[in-house]
TrEMBL record:
Top-rank EC class of the record's enzyme: ligase
Protein name: Proline--tRNA ligase
Gene3D superfamilies per UniProt: Anticodon-binding domain (3.40.50.800), Bira Bifunctional Protein, Domain 2 (3.30.930.10)
Stored CDD domains: ProRS-INS (cd04334), ProRS_anticodon_short (cd00861), ProRS_core_prok (cd00779)
Catalysed reactions listed for this entry: tRNA(Pro) + L-proline + ATP = L-prolyl-tRNA(Pro) + AMP + diphosphate
Principal subcellular localisation of the protein: cytoplasm
Gene expressing this chain: proS
């Protein structure tokens, strides 16, 4: 491609509202332009980069035995109603009506469609297993689109679905996809971890998120400093290593705490440590009250509460609900003398509090000298808090550290959640109808592209990993008005293209400084510059990765290009 013809509107300055480096560089490098909040056009250079990521994904999916197909973006509401997700998915599901007032959704994922296809076209166990995938635009009505294409409302995604006879088959399909994901993100040269995670609205069991470690990540990864253990903080288990504290001589005593509602306020007012307080939170689990009690320096985890109770929905109780159940407003509730109809979950860490402080279930009042084993009227010990840095690793090796992560992929074992709802059945070898066992596997293709840029850049611009680079080589005629320089650049351009390389030729009549700045910004791995020694067939070759520059004869270009490309492979 000749740069004089390429639609590549580069920018010198950082656009307003672009808070992260990938968003800034994609705008400056002429890769994307915003249409509306969370919706972007990919310009030719950005689209070419996105296609490189697509190619890697497609190659590894095909290698894993998956078959590519294409499903509609618009999905009838009745499919989602059958699965129960029409309401459960929430406001992120983009809904619309056609001219006949029939309800549809713009698909964020395609479990229902796949299950419907299977119900119509899979008949026998002999037709299983199968894995299908597509690469398609998806839609999610994000409450707060931000970070460019990292969190948008329209995005490119690869979604795959495995169809098996039984759980053993699902385990095998899941492992194949898990391994393929490792290969994909390794080829993109991303620093990633596969972490155990919550399945959320997808349902099913056993799921892993593929997280790129990044300071701008919106998820927190808890990982061991001495093993391969890694999990999303939402589900990272906390080991019960706590011994019960001795009972205090004093009995619980009410103390006035006017307007002191938070743990920090109460601890400061009573001159005690936050770790010596009981934090009590009232949740409604499928409409039933549950009081969750954790130590004052810990945070309750409602996802763990949901899993422990087997509930469909767990939400923090409103002030009105709290008054009705416990007789006082939030900030003064506590676990002593809790009504029998209220389920109480105690985090094991509260056992170490010898003489603690908790709400007295009276406005403006707290209790002191509280001991969990002695004073809490009823309750069940359960892991209901977030793990913290320094806690023992759940696998028993090392201690927990935190790192932020960008989710670029997610694999789920769905089981029969969707096949049962949509009657996706097959006949086994005894002629009995069985539900197909499903798995679901997603990769945010456009998000992965942004993650690549987020990880691979310097102050001057993008530094593409070799396989994600839109072009292999950037040929620059430093002075395109000088015939010998332009002719040599044209000759190199033609020769490299004939050898199978993808080449960008900067044949513009811009100043040399402008060309060099643009070249650094767009970050093509190898740069060849024709300059004052063009008549001798001598050119400068620069490696974008480390800045190394060599003067070489054009006859030696293939060897030099190969050597520079090997540097990228050794990263």
């Amino acid at each position: 491609m000749r740069q004089s013809s390429l639609f590549l509107p580069t920018l010198r300055d950082v656009p307003g509202g672009a808070d992260v480096i990938s968003h800034q560089l994609m705008l400056r490098a002429g890769m994307i332009r915003q249409s509306t909040a969370g919706v972007y056009s990919f310009l030719p250079f950005g689209w070419k980069a996105l296609q490189k990521v697509e190619r890697i994904v497609r190659e590894e999916m095909d290698l894993a035995g998956a078959q590519e197909m294409l499903m509609p973006s618009i999905q009838p509401a009745e499919l989602w109603q059958k699965s129960g997700r029409w309401e459960a998915y929430g406001p992120e599901l983009m809904r619309l009506k056609d001219r006949h007032q029939r309800d549809f959704a713009l698909g964020p994922t395609h479990e229902e469609v796949v299950a419907s296809l299977v119900s119509d076209d899979i008949r026998s166990y002999k037709e299983l297993p199968k894995t299908v995938y597509q690469i398609q635009t998806k839609f999610r009505d994000e409450r707060r689109p931000r970070f460019g294409i990292l969190r948008g409302r329209e995005f490119l995604m690869k979604d795959a679905y495995s169809l098996d006879k039984d759980e053993a088959g699902l385990d095998e399909s899941y492992q194949q996809m898990y391994d393929a994901y490792h290969r994909i993100f390794s080829r993109l040269n991303l620093n990633f971890r596969a972490v155990t995670a919550d399945s959320g609205a997808m349902g099913g069991k056993d799921t892993h998120e593929f997280m790129v470690l990044s300071d701008i990540g919106e998820d927190t990864i808890a990982y061991s400093d001495s093993s391969d253990y890694a999990a999303n903080i939402e589900i990272a288990a906390v080991l019960d290593t706590y011994d019960a504290a001795a009972e205090p001589a004093e009995t619980p005593e009410e103390v006035e705490t006017p307007d002191q509602k938070t743990i920090a306020e109460v601890a400061d007012f009573l001159e005690v440590a936050a770790a010596d307080c009981f934090k009590s939170l009232l949740f409604m689990a499928d409409g039933e009250p549950v009081l969750v009690v954790v130590r004052g320096d810990h945070e309750a985890n409602e996802i763990k509460v949901k899993h422990h109770l087997g509930a469909e929905e767990v939400v923090l109780a409103s002030e009105k609900e709290t008054l009705k159940v416990l007789g006082t407003e939030p900030g003064f509730i506590g676990p002593v003398n809790t009504p029998a109809e209220v389920n109480v979950l105690l985090d094991p860490a509260v056992k170490v509090v010898s003489s603690g402080v908790c709400g007295a279930n009276k406005s403006g009042m707290h209790l002191k000298n509280v001991h969990a084993g002695r004073d809490l009227s009823h309750g069940e010990y359960a892991d209901v808090r977030n793990i913290q840095e320094g806690d023992p690793s759940p696998d028993g090796t090392g201690t927990i550290c935190f790192k932020e992560g960008i989710e670029v992929g997610h694999v789920f074992k769905l089981g029969t959640k969707y096949s049962e709802a949509l009657k996706a059945e097959y006949l086994d070898d005894h002629g009995r109808a069985r539900p197909v066992v499903m798995g679901s596997y997603g990769i945010g293709v456009s998000r992965a592209l942004a993650a690549v840029i987020e990880e691979h850049h310097d102050d001057s611009g993008i530094i593409w990993p070799l396989e994600a680079a839109p072009y292999d080589v950037h040929v620059i005629a430093i002075n395109a008005k000088q015939e010998e320089q332009l002719a040599l650049a044209e000759s190199i351009y033609d020769s490299l293209r004939q050898s199978g390389m993808e080449v960008l030729l900067d044949d513009r009549t811009e100043r040399a400084g402008v060309k060099f700045k643009d070249a650094d910004l767009i970050g093509i791995p190898v740069r060849i510059q024709t300059g004052k020694r063009a008549a001798e067939n001598i050119v400068e070759v620069k490696c974008r990765l480390d800045g190394e520059v060599e003067e070489v004869h054009t006859d030696d270009l293939p060897e030099v290009i190969t050597r520079m490309q090997k540097k990228y492979m050794q990263q």
